[in-house]
Amino acid sequence: MFGLLKHISPKTRILFFAIFLILLPGAILSYFGFRSISEKAENLTTTYRGTVILVRDRIETEILRLEEPLRSSLTEQQLKSDSFKEIEAWLGELELRHPGLGHFFLVNSQGGVISATVSLGWVKTEEEPELGEIAGMTEFRSAEESEFVKKDCAAAVQSYKSVLTKTRTPAGRDFVLSRIGRCYFKMKRYREGIDAYKKIVALPDQRSGSGIVPSSIAALTQIADGYASLGEDKKREATLFALYERLLYHPWDLEGGEYSYYLNSTIEEVNSIVNRSSNGNQTERVFPRLKEREKELLAELGFVRRIHQTLVPQVLSEMSRETVSQLVPLRIPLPLDGSIIEVSYLRLPGSFQRLGISAMGYAVNEDYLVSVLLPRILGAVDLGKDLVVGILGSDGTPRYLQKNVPTSKYLMAENFSKTFSTWKVALFHPDGKTVEELVGREKHLYLALFLGIVAVMVIGIVFVGRAALHEVEASRMKSEFVSSVSHELKTPLALIRMFGETLESGLVSDEAKRQEFYHIITKESERLTHLINNVLNFSKMETGSKQYRFEEDDIVQVVRGTLEAYRFHIRDLGFEMVIQLPDDPIVMMIDKDAISQALLNLLNNAAKYSDEQKFIRVELTKNVDWVLISVEDRGVGIPQDELGKIFEKFYRASTTRTKETTGSGLGLTLVKHIVEAHTGSVEVSSTVGGGSRFVLRLPLQQAVDS
Ligand code: ADP
Q1: Is the dihedral of CA 481, 487, 493, 495 positive or negative?
Q2: Domain that holds residue 681
Q3: 10 backbone dihedrals φ, ψ, rounded to 5°
Q4: Which residues contact 12 (CB under 8 A, 6 or more apart)?
Q5: I want to staple 596 with a disulfide (CB 3.0 to 4.6 A). Which of 13, 250, 278, 562 is the partner?
Q6: CB atoms < 10 A from the CB of 679, how many?
Q7: Ligand 1 centre and the CA of 623: distance in Å?
């Protein structure tokens, strides 16, 4: 690196150092800019996190407050027995009293679960109906004998009917009536059989124990079969609808799987009936309502099943621990049908324990939360127009939004900590921006600013560099100019002096020779005058004080006169000169001295820049608009790429620079200035080695007819 620096000139080193000094503050500024942006991002993140936590805690407190009335009510004696009816009614009532909570269920010490609708593995303490409830036991036995041993169904029906008249309890009547129905069906007397089963359906429903099909369900199934045998489809369909409705509103213990079996096969039958028939009878009108109930029931069945499978073992093991206090909820997120239910459960007080009930469970009602509680809580939370609070569910999709904003990105989000552990509270920007995006704009601004500064500096450096190069070139040209002008002055002066001294010495006796010497002295002084005129005119031109004196003059005469004066000099140099001028005068407004000087400059150049081919041709022509004066030579020529530059001050073409000719680089600059003062132009065409042709083009509009 330092080795490399040695080869760099001190000037360049200074330039590099200057660039470094200029860039350094820019870089430092940008560094601090970026640092302040990062700090801003950090501060924003901290603020937003604090805000989110605050909002989350507030929401959680409110959610937990929903449980307070429930917990305080549980301390009292609530249940007299563990009968299905009482428990289901109580659980249903809880749901009404606590709208923010739902999915109430109880777990008993055997691991059974019961909800307001269904139960699973919940063994009931009530006695099953005994045959003892049937009066006339001897008669009943003889009826059974007729039915099964003698295969005399008619006699059996008689005996069962007689038993029925004596039986009072609903369970007993259920039982005997089902025997009568069965015997009629065996005898293919379906209508009478159906009548017997209908009586069972009409009786108040008996809730059977675990896994036992309720008699009304069995009876309805039989009735449907009876109508099928009779070929009475409409009635069979109506019966199946009744069965469907009864199954939906009177589910029984799921344990044996019979309930699910009955429900699923009836749903199938009912669906196929509805699909087949197109007339809107009464059953079809209630169908949507039943379907709705079916959906709720299946969901409830799924929920209770899930609780039974996954949660109950955990609940029982936790309840067996002494450390778990009463009425303090424990929580668990329970995946169900693709979503997650946040289930809470708690140990129940002693009065429940005595009935064999270990724990109660429930879930916060999400609908209530989203449509009632969150709007109430977040309606009171105002974080300004730049912040919107939202609640994200377990799958990350918004469950509730304070305002409608894009939700693909959030500023900050925090999980719930006490309940709904899979949910998040999130802060959104109204335009859906993240913290990075919020500060990103400033970051880009800083970057653009920095790049802008660098760009401006680079442009400045380029301009300064170019100007410096120009200066160097100009000063080179100036020194060249000084040396060539001095040289040009020296030659004529030396000649004048030499011939002057020779004449003065009186050594030249020949008159002709003396005359020649006088002539040379005159010519050389004329050249000196011309040269000095050029320099003086140029300096006037540069300062803007050059004045032209336009007068009406015959341009042909001006050109002719100039050529006359120059002819001898050029002939002395051995040039052949061809001149073509019109015979008639062309009178126009010109500065004749200036035009003459321009022509002289062109003639001088033609002579100076010719080698072996010493030929000059001068021509004056006139067309409608212009007078054209051309000076042509067969000299060294000018390269094409330099043609445009030769009119610049001090410029000397590469073909002639190395030649032994002297020159100031001012001649053509003056020519151009003079011609442009006459509102004309100068053109040049040239080939290297082939000669050049300069044309002065002067407008005729100032011409005056002679
Ligand atoms: P100088 O005093 O050098 O002749 P000029 O302004 O008259 O200055 O000319 C500029 C340059 O143009 C010359 O140095 C020369 O290189 C080139 N030049 C001008 N006239 C001719 C010509 N007739 N033939 C070749 N080169 C020419």
Answers
A1: negative
A2: 511-699
A3: -55, -35
A4: none
A5: 562
A6: 10
A7: 28
Does the residue 349 lie in any domain?
no
Q: Residue 357's beta-bridge partner residues?
A: 108
Protein residue with its CA nearest to atom 23 in ligand 1: 606
Give the residue from 519, 545, 684, 660 showing the smallest Cα distance to 601.
684
Amino acid at site 695: V
Distance 438 CA to ligand 1 centre (A): 67
Does ligand 1 have an atom closer than 6 angstroms to the CB of 605? Answer: yes
Whole-angstrom CA distances from 357 to 109, 124, 472 are 6, 12, 106
317-328: b (≥16 Cβ within 10 Å) or e: eebeeeeeeeee
What CA–CA distances, in Å, run from 631 to 105, 122, 221, 504? 119, 128, 130, 40
Quick: pLDDT tens for 324-378.
788 888 888 888 887 888 899 998 888 888 888 889 999 988 889 889 998 888 8
Q: Which residues pair with 697 in a beta bridge?
A: 628, 681
Summarize the confidence of residues 383-404 as an average pLDDT: 86
The set of residues, in sequence order, having a beta carbon less than 8 Å from that of 59 and lying 6+ positions away, is 374, 377, 378, 391, 416, 425
Domain assignment present for residue 305? The answer is no
Predicted confidence at residue 281, as pLDDT, reads 59
Atom 13, ligand 1: residue with shortest CA distance: 652
Phi-psi category of 212—alpha, beta or left, where left has phi over 0 and alpha has psi -120 to 50? beta
- Is residue 691 within 6 Å of ligand 1 at its C-beta? no
Q: Which amino acid is at 522?
A: T
What's 81's DSSP letter? -
Average pLDDT over residues 204-213: 58
HSE, CB side, 13 Å, CA atoms: give it for residue 698.
Answer: 30
Let me know if residue 398 belongs to a domain: no
539 domain residue, yes or no: yes
Nearest to 251 by CA among 292, 286, 207: 207
Lowest mean pLDDT among 13-17, 150-154, 544-548: 13-17
| Most informative mutation of 530, 610, 643, 652 for ligand 1 (most atoms within 8 A of CB) | 652
3-state secondary structure 278-298: CCCCHHHHHHHHHHHHHHHHH
Longest alpha-carbon distance in the chain: 193
Beta-sheet pairing, 388-392 with 113-115:
unpaired
CA nearest ligand 1 atom 14, residue: 652
For the stretch 217-231, what's the b/e string if a residue is b when 16 or more beta carbons lie within 10 angstroms of its beta carbon? bbbbbbbbbbbeeee
Model confidence over 516-565: pLDDT tens digits? Answer: 888 888 878 887 887 888 888 888 887 888 888 899 999 999 999 999 87
Amino acid at 119: S
| Alpha carbon 8 to its chain's center | 48
Q: How many helices (H) and strands (E) does the chain have?
A: 22, 17
Q: Is the CB of 646 inside a 6 Å radius of any atom of ligand 1?
A: yes
Query: How many structural domains does the chain have?
Result: 1
Where does 68-151 show beta strands of DSSP type E?
A: 101-108, 113-115, 119-120
| Cα separation, 240 vs 221, whole angstroms | 8
Q: Is 616 in the pocket of ligand 1 (CB under 6 A)?
A: no
Contacts of 206 (CB under 8 A, 6+ apart): 129, 170, 171, 174, 214, 215, 216
User: Which amino acid is present at 641?
Assistant: D
- Give the domain CATH number at 676: 3.30.565.10
Say if ligand 1 is within 6 A of residue 635 CB: yes
Pocket test for ligand 1, best of 482, 486, 489, 609 (most atoms within 8 A of CB): 609
3-state DSSP assignment of residue 617: strand
